[in-house]
């Protein structure tokens, strides 16, 4: 495609597919997780044993790494594997550190909220205790009513039975009226 002056530069650039930002991190973590397993050690050991056995005792014309040269190709393969494994492990550790940092921040925030909630509940309980000390209990109200009843009975006993002053069921006082009005 020839350079044209009437075409914007953005459209002339080679467009590469967008790779999800976290995809490489997930892949590196899965590889690093596999590299740290006994299964990987067994597979790598088996690979090296097959490589050495084939190149030491296999058909001479099909050997591709000479034992006389110290299995140079195998050494290069293992060096290549190690050179890729180290950065992948570091990347996985960095991602784990980031996750740990986020988790620690969330734990700190949760602990602060729990502390604030606990302090609030403690204040509320203290205010309820103070308020309950000022509230009349059932026994207190009963004793006061009993005392009032005894006082009324004592007054009635002193005044004597007074039939014309005894209230009748339909003789109710309206608010603001006094007896005898």
From TrEMBL:
<keyword id="KW-1133">Transmembrane helix</keyword>
<keyword id="KW-0472">Membrane</keyword>
<dbReference type="Pfam" id="PF06210">
    <property type="entry name" value="DUF1003"/>
</dbReference>
<feature type="transmembrane region" description="Helical">
    <location>
        <begin position="70"/>
        <end position="91"/>
    </location>
</feature>
<keyword id="KW-0812">Transmembrane</keyword>
<feature type="transmembrane region" description="Helical">
    <location>
        <begin position="40"/>
        <end position="58"/>
    </location>
</feature>
<protein>
    <submittedName>
        <fullName>Membrane protein</fullName>
    </submittedName>
</protein>
<dbReference type="InterPro" id="IPR010406">
    <property type="entry name" value="DUF1003"/>
</dbReference>
<feature type="region of interest" description="Disordered">
    <location>
        <begin position="152"/>
        <end position="181"/>
    </location>
</feature>
<feature type="compositionally biased region" description="Basic and acidic residues">
    <location>
        <begin position="163"/>
        <end position="181"/>
    </location>
</feature>
């Amino acid at each position: 495609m020839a350079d044209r002056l009437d075409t914007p530069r953005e459209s002339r650039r080679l467009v590469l597919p967008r790779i999800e930002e976290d995809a490489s991190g997930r892949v590196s973590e899965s590889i690093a997780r596999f590299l740290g397993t006994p299964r990987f050690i067994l597979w790598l050991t088996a690979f090296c044993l097959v490589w050495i056995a084939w190149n030491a005792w296999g058909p001479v014309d099909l050997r591709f790494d000479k034992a006389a040269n110290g299995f140079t190709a195998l050494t290069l393969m293992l060096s290549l594997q190690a050179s890729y494994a180290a950065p992948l492990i570091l990347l996985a550790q960095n991602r784990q550190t980031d996750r740990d940092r986020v988790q620690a921040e969330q734990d700190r925030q949760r602990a602060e909220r729990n502390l604030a909630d606990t302090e609030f509940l403690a204040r509320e309980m203290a205010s309820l205790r103070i308020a309950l000390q000022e509230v009349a209990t059932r026994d207190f109200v009963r004793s006061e009513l009993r005392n009032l009843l005894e006082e009324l009975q004592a007054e009635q006993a002193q005044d004597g039975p007074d039939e014309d002053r005894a209230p009748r069921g339909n003789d109710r006082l309206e608010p603001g009226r006094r007896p005898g009005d």
